[in-house]
Design brief:
The complex is a heterodimer. Chain A is an all-alpha fold. Chain A contains 6 helices and no strands. In chain A, helix 2 crosses helix 6. By secondary structure, chain B is of the alpha+beta class. Chain B folds into 2 domains: 97 residues, Cytochrome c-like domain (Cytochrome Bc1 Complex, Chain D, domain 2), CATH 1.10.760; 407 residues, Methanol Dehydrogenase, Chain A, CATH 2.140.10.20. Helices cover 15% and strands 38% of the residues of chain B. Chain B contains 7 helices and 35 strands. The chains are: A mainly alpha, B alpha+beta.
Chain lengths: 101, 524
Amino acid sequence: MKITQLIVLLAGLLAFASSQAASPYAGQVKAGEVCAQCHGMKQPGVGSPFPPLAGRDANYLKTALKQYRDKTRVSELMNNIAGSLSDSDINDIVSYYSNVH
Amino acid sequence: MRTTIKRLNKSLLATSIAFLLASQTASAKSDDMNQVYQDNCASCHGADLGGYLAPALNSATLKGRSPTAMRTIVLAGSFDTLMPPFYGKLSDDDIRGVLKHLQNTPKQPNPAWTIDDTKKSIKVYVKDESTLPSKPTYSIDDMSNIIGVAARGKYGRGEGSKAVFINSKTHQKIGEVHTGTAAHIIEFNPANPRWAYVKTDTAEIFKVDLYSMQVVRSVKTGFNGPGIGISRDGKYIMAGSFVPHNATILNADTLEPLKTFELEGVDPDGKMVSSDSGMIVGTPYADIFAIALENAGQVWVVDLKEGFPVTKIEKVGRHLHDAFLTHGGKKLMIAAYDDNIVAAIDLEKREIIKKLDAGCVPHVGGGSAVVVDGRTLGFGTNFGDCDKTVVSVWDLDKMEVVKQIPVAGGTESPAAHANAPYVAVDIISKDRRARTVQLIDKKTLEVVKTLDVGGHAYFPEYSADGKFLYISAGYNGDEVVVYDSITLQKVASVPMESPAGIFSRGRVKYMTRGLSPDEIGQSK
């Protein structure tokens, strides 16, 4: 293998790894923009009808967001909101909320 | 023929009855929808549909807007604003109904709120104040260490809306009072450390006993408007409204109204106008209140003596809003949105000293002034969205512009302290910059650091000793973040729902944030 090929391969691997690594910091920013209006950064507003997300199981959150995005779980509001999220947005948001205690 | 006429009459009668009934239900429906609006929307959008913190919603402003798009905003809230989601709070029928009602209804005339209405609105929660504890029921070295935060609550009303009080040495919450609608301003009684006054978005004023952390009385002085000031002897409060256009002097003890002023006058363009109340301030230098008439562009000085006589200072600027005091409280620096100036007023001579350039839509918030190398420098924020966003610095002794410091975006409130090296300004431009607060070095007058606070960060405030910088992470942040004022390291977080304004009780000592307590000494 030529050295340039190796570099390209490594760079590709790195890019792949970093695109997969969920960042709770990026998630906090995204959650503030997209989720917090209803679900709060830590908890929903007093007397609001929305379920809390903070501290919930990461797999549950990820599955639910993807279902809402793909409209396999139907909710007028959530289908609209989750529809704008990329896979990495979802990973970041999940990594933020599942780590808030 | 006769029967035909009869029949015709009958059917006419039936039609007109049906028509009457229909129009009655239509107007009943409109009344209901007005009630839904008043109960859920009016505290931000204005009881008269004319707007307040949030845009005006009436037949003119909503003309041509898609009901479907508006319904989505009401259901899900509007991102990066205070607009909450009403999904689950209001039925779909009510949402559609209230939108239809608003698209068909013009802005309402300024509703009346008389001195009698104010008198009747007084509520007494603690009848005998002598039963209250004689000292704080919690441990605190000095009442000046108290910091009050206006926690709006997500819906701007209900259980989430409170004034939260924190000990700024320990960063622990020491108490909170529920305010029904969003708390907006917190003022502290300069003469007696036990009393604070919290004004809400719906112009209710709560007299709070800080020793026992409870409300003892409340009064409503209008429908909205942030203006409230306290006299230096702690005996009088003056509160002003946007709706209706008046201001009222109250007994600070009983909250009984003493006199109401109708706010109107000739504006700088020579037109007689009725006016919103802008800032109201008591000053340590004299027994007076100064009040800004926003639309009339005038500042009135009210003497706290028999009859409360008024001296009017005209042509101060177009659309006045907020202000701060300097020189022992003898000078007032007041911002004029539409002239892009800050006017310096001599409260002793009751005249304009000078108008100074102040950037783009100057909003000085609580204002800040610091003494640097013998000069008293004033700092002014600006919340306009212009090409060049700056913080203005003025030499308050010479009354001239020293520098306009470029900052990352529009700004709303500067914080300074005699013991802290930086002046903090909140960037409020509506994108990720809104998460940040920038720090200006007092000596070099350059931005030296940007803090990412999270949420919609605003209203920085120093603790009374200057050691800590408190910042609201606002909506989408839901916490107040505390920094060491020198290292700028985060030292604490106090969770609360949608925090906004932060008010240190230390302000009564240093009059304007950043000045030394000795400054007030000059006035005595």
